[in-house]
Prior knowledge:
Blueprint: E1 13-17, H1 21-32, E2 36-41, E3 54-57, H2 63-72, E4 75-78
Amino acid sequence: MTEPAAPLRPGSTIGILGGGQLGRMLSVAASRLGYRCHIYCPDPESPAFDVSAAQTVAAYDDLDALDAFAAAVDVVTYE
């Protein structure tokens, strides 16, 4: 049996794949709880970029960019 993962502490960085309206709302909600958000999206005009601490503009199939993104955050989710 494995131990459950520790809770993500405020101040941690959440990586969000997708920068549309859902990513924007997730980023706003997370920041209210004390988290930083890093958005990954191929669209440089992504709505979520306005409310995030960090942004990556790259294609979803860019493995080098995805690796760098994953290394820069504490957890990854998607919109």
